[in-house]
């Protein structure tokens, strides 16, 4: 399960590829290690065009899974898109793309961190994500907080990832056309993107 990734490209690069209309991230610094429950940049559709903004990583958990304290650490990934828990957020209004330059999976055998990217130059790509505004208890000491949350979809791993981690890999978008499709297409069409990258499209770095 992907619980760690990096985003080290510039705001300008994100804005260009994702055709961003409004940038709300301020002076966005390189983020070499992004963990679940941390803030990270995302792009979604807004009333006047696409918005680049910071969201908190971890979508709401089902209420039935919460402990007595009500604390919800958030779900980092979306695997079963047929689940009723996720279907409500799979329409265009709740889709986003998550810029990244590399992502990490733990080796199934050694548990060591293994990083993947499109190539050694760490080009910009995007995870296919969903988002929502939500009130929850992320940390008991803070009590209920209002947050804008996101997570990204996973799929079967390609051969490169499966050699390290056999369970899943993120759904990765590598072109403007794929970003456009994910952000605006009807649900069934958008979900055709929930597939592994072709063999050879990722490298271990």
Automatic annotation (TrEMBL):
Q: Does the keyword DNA-binding apply?
A: no
Among InterPro entries, the record links this protein to: SRAP (IPR003738)
E.C. no: 3.4.-.-
Cite a single GO MF annotation.
single-stranded DNA binding
Q: Which GO terms describe its biological process?
A: protein-DNA covalent cross-linking repair; proteolysis
Give the matching Pfam families.
SRAP
Q: What class of enzyme is it?
A: hydrolase
Give UniProt keywords alphabetically.
Hydrolase, Protease
User: To which protein family does this belong?
Assistant: Belongs to the SOS response-associated peptidase family.
Please give the name of this protein. Answer: Abasic site processing protein
Q: What is the organism of origin for this protein?
A: Roseobacter insulae
